Amino acid sequence: MGSSLRMLLVVLYGCAFIAGFNENLMNMALVSIMGQFAIDAVMAQWLVTGYMIVVTVVVACMAYLYRRFSLRALFFAAAALNIAGSLGGMASGGFVSLLLFRIVQALGAGVFIPLMMNVVVQRVPRQNLGACLALGSSMITIGPATAPIVTGFLVSQFGWASVFCVPLDFGVLFAILGWFVVRDERQPVRGRFDGLSALLMAGGVTLLSVGLAAVSSQPVVGLGEMALAVLLLAAFALRQQRCSHPLVSLKPLRLRAFWPAAVLVMVTMMTYFSLSVVTPLYFEQAAGMSASMAGLMLLLPVCAHAGAAVVSGRQLDRRGEWPLMPLGMAIALTGLLMMVAGALLPVMPLVVGGVFLGYLGTGMLLSPSQTAGLRRLSPQLHSHGVSLMGMALQLAACLGPALYVGVMSSVTEAAQQAGAPLAWAASQGFGAAMAVAAVICAGGLAAAAAYAAFMRKRPYGGPEDEAAAGE
């Protein structure tokens, strides 16, 4: 790779880190925000879930946006939105304004991540694709993983508004660097934007998140909202197949080498984001830790996740999907089961060890899943594949926290109403949430084993890939 591409990737990796950091920017501040604005955990969680919903919709639009606008135009539009959202969030005096500026941040983040992935998939040599995508994936996941550590300290020392200093400062830095290195040789292609598809996606994801959050406390209402969400998302998928100008082509989902990888990305990220959101709440409410200490408890797991992501990307380039992918999912499942046992016994060291294994396992699985699916696509489908993989990632980021926080909140509330002290009630809620995550992860383990075994029989670069390249 040339030096200009290396510098471009450094800037785009940095921006992906910002986008990931913003996803968990508010986690350690939720308790303070709940107290200041007199709201409950479900309402406060919209600072995370609402952000994820907007990012998901923007990612769905990126296949169109990447073709319609130059790399430089998209980069600086995203940078401006990130800076504006950070400034506004820092100055917010109410919950509604804070939520609105989080949405502005999300508009920028939704561009940053698929922008980086498109550049990697289209410009990096094939023999380095796994390693470079692994670095990109590690930036996406290190961002939200380090956010609780950094923001926990900031919240404890300077208050919740100070957390916006991080994306603001880094956003300005990378915008300045980007002025010199972000160049694009592509010619933008005019096309029609399908606004109806974007609305269907936004409505479906929003209702799905709301339904998952409500189903544990209001089963009938939650199931009704989820049913309507399924109808809207089905209408979105049907429109993409019948529309002459789809927002994102669903052709990659017809390939057996791609769609299981997207499913594994969803399962992995649901597990990962559940750890990033629910674990700090457990450390604060059940263990009585400060926000900064709760964040520090995630330092070693974050390092394990980052290291596993980089090593697994290189191993995928060398040896393929087997046994790397099922091994990563098995480690994550073991960690979740340890957390369930540790929360309900209760034994804190067991929870801490489970958190470590959960981060390690998801780090081993995420980037190989993305790379395994994307590298089998033809160049014509790259931008659509990146959008679909990004949608899978962001849908998981929406659904995971909504589901697991909803389970934890409802079980905690029920235990308190039965007379349990807050610490024990929070332990029960955390254990219930991790039990649900373990069931989903067990399904992911079966899927990972089947997919890796299937891909083992079809080495990368074989006849199937040549056929796909000709599509």
From TrEMBL:
Asked whether the keyword Protease is assigned, the reply is no
Q: What is this protein called?
A: Multidrug efflux MFS transporter
**Organism (species):** Parvibacter caecicola
Keyword Transmembrane helix belongs to the record: yes
- Where are the bilayer-spanning segments? 48-66, 73-93, 99-121, 133-154, 160-181, 193-214, 220-238, 258-283, 289-312, 324-344, 350-367, 388-409, 429-454
Q: Where in the cell is it found?
A: Cell membrane
Q: What is its main location?
A: membrane
Q: Which Pfam families match?
A: MFS_1 (PF07690)
What keywords sit in the KW lines?
Membrane, Transmembrane, Transmembrane helix, Transport
Q: Where is the Major facilitator superfamily (MFS) profile domain?
A: 8-460
